[in-house]
Design goal:
By secondary structure, the chain is α+β, with helices and mostly antiparallel strands. It contains 5 helices and 10 strands; from the N terminus they run ααββββββββββααα. GO terms for molecular function: manganese ion binding.
């Protein structure tokens, strides 16, 4: 039986003990951290995130990611957790990337997803997830998610072992940051023209 969005969140909460165990954020010596700029009275509103209430749908076939990290949800500071909702259009991809400060635990809410990561020995681990499956991406390793279904969308929820997991896009960091064309051509054993063609399709950060 397919799980609805609320049930998905409840299930993901059960694995937060795991997320905390592998967290990389420093321990704090208080119950929570209040931002210096925060002048309002601390109540339940401070600890509430409402950004997942009305999630936008993908536009023009592009992956839509809605985050609840330290930037969007200041109450997470020092708590070593964050989350994101990923809405994949048919055929949508979350390109190869890394999270340098956190392990990621992904839960497939609806649809199917191909997921994979490569370890430090250049071994690729792949799996086709069904609705209700979970997959863990070890901290710092290159990984991706892909909705191979070109007719139906897919939704996933990711939990991270850091309030600020960070994201490093492999295509953007390699081809969109100004690394010299000749260096990239030698590294990828190709010619400069090919590198320039790839760069023309990469948005600068």
């Amino acid at each position: 039986m397919a799980l609805n969005f609320v049930q998905s969140f409840l299930l993901l909460l059960l694995v937060f003990a795991f997320i905390t165990a592998v967290a990389s954020d420093p321990d704090i010596t208080s119950d929570f951290i209040t931002p210096a700029y925060f002048s309002s009275v601390i109540n339940g509103t401070f600890f509430t995130f409402t950004g997942f209430r009305n999630l936008p749908d993908p536009i023009n076939g592009t992956l839509m990611v809605t985050k609840a990290s330290l930037v969007e949800f200041p109450a997470l500071d020092g708590q070593s957790v964050s989350m994101a909702v990923l809405k994949f259009p048919p055929g949508g991809i979350n390109p190869p990337h890394t999270h340098p400060r956190a392990t990621e635990l992904l839960f497939a809410v609806s649809g199917t997803l191909e997921v994979a990561f490569a370890d430090t020995k250049n071994v690729l681990y792949t799996k086709q997830l069904q609705t209700g499956d979970m997959f863990v991406f070890p901290k710092g390793l290159v990984h991706y998610q892909y909705n191979r279904n070109h007719k139906n969308p897919a939704i996933a929820i990711s939990a991270f072992g850091s309030a600020n997991a960070g994201t490093v896009s492999v295509p953007n960091s390699v081809f969109g940051t100004g690394i010299d064309d000749e260096i990239l051509a030698k590294a990828f054993k190709t010619d400069v023209a090919t590198i320039q063609k790839i760069k023309s399709g990469i948005a600068s950060p």
